[in-house]
Amino acid sequence: MRTIQLKLRSASSRIVVGPGIYPELPGLIEDTGLTGPFLVVSQQRILSEIDTRPLRGWPVVTIPDGERAKTLGTVRKLLDQMLELKMTRSSTVIALGGGVVGDVAGFAASLLLRGVAVVQVPTTLLAQVDSSVGGKTGVNHRVGKNLIGTFHQPRLVVADPTLLDTLPEREYRSGLYEVLKYGVIRDATLFSRFESGIDRIRARDAGLLDELVYRSLRIKARVVAADEKEGDLRRILNFGHTLGHAIEAAAGYRRIRHGEAVGYGMIGASRIAVRMGMIESNVGRRIAGAIDAIGPRPDISMLDIATMIESITHDKKVRDGRVHFVLPEKIGSVVMRPDVGRNHVRSTLRELIR
Ligand SMILES: NC(=O)c1ccc[n+]([C@@H]2O[C@H](COP(=O)([O-])OP(=O)(O)OC[C@H]3O[C@@H](n4cnc5c(N)ncnc54)[C@H](O)[C@@H]3O)[C@@H](O)[C@H]2O)c1
Q1: 0.85 cut: is pTM over it?
Q2: Closest Cα partner for 126 from 27, 260, 6, 296?
Q3: In angstroms, what is the span from residue 127 Cα to ligand 1's centroid?
Q4: pLDDT digit string (tens) for 138-173?
Q5: Cα→Cα distances 193→54, 179, 229, Å
Q6: Exposure string (b/e) for 248-261, b if CB count within 10 Å is 16 or more?
Q7: Are 278 and 226 a contacting pair, CB within 8 Å?
Q8: Ligand 1 within 6 A of 70 CB?
């Protein structure tokens, strides 16, 4: 078991990573100084797949499955249940699930009694390497995704790769794109281990996953520590996301998982970097090769380029009317570029959907 301490101005998070640590949850919570009463927030499906004995009979409430449950309505119901269960300021919410549970439970915890402690126990790969750390919570609005939310740092994050055994294949693969993202933006060793270990990764080898999850979280924690509230540095975590979001939006947030769209987006960003002379074409091919080795992505050939371009110009990363792309300058390092020509974006999208 390895620990990462994330020290921030507003709060601190203790992140523990290791295969087989989930059964030690009560002890880990106690070591963090959290005394309870506790409330577990999860989803029915997760509770039926995962051993619930480490939850010690704590009360459990569930939220519906899926991105469509990430609404203010779900948060309101959750707050009702929390108040009916007479939660106090010393209560702790334990979010057991993927990014949806983490975002919704974290948001409700940040609002209840002006904020109660939250422990994140991520059960998807995406949540283990990304959403459980950094304190972003929130829900969607019909105008767009994640538009309503707070920053509320978890006191403890318990990432156990063996919890991923029951994860559906497509969800698992979606998380692998995010792992590879960390390799490209900050960690050439992680990238190489990913490339050479792809068969073990596909077989969900807990030892290798432990290493990949740990290295990913270490990067996320360092970036968040240096830039808690999403200034420039934290934006490097958005590598692949500008084109990725455009693909998700053009697909109407259906059919394509976020990670799969980021997979396409990373290939696109690498091609733009080649076009701009920032990396050699063999480096671009190496990045694309690692992404392709994860497995097939859904077909996007029916998506409309004009809709994608429209969505890019409305992206959160647009400042002063310029789209800021995160582009690789080598494997292990990226930079923000505000000067990507429209023609490069258009040609790259055309290639991607081919
Ligand atoms: N807060 C952040 O910083 C941040 C970062 C990235 C993404 N997100 C958010 O995360 C969400 C996506 O999260 P996700 O990809 O984890 O999806 P998810 O939470 O919807 O989980 C995917 C599916 O897997 C099931 N599941 C989860 N763990 C399981 C397990 N161990 N075994 C079997 N089934 C399991 C869930 O019930 C669900 O059906 C999005 O809403 C996104 O906006 C947040």
Answers
A1: yes
A2: 260
A3: 6
A4: 999 988 889 999 999 999 999 999 999 999 999 999
A5: 32, 11, 31
A6: bbbbebeebbbbbb
A7: no
A8: yes
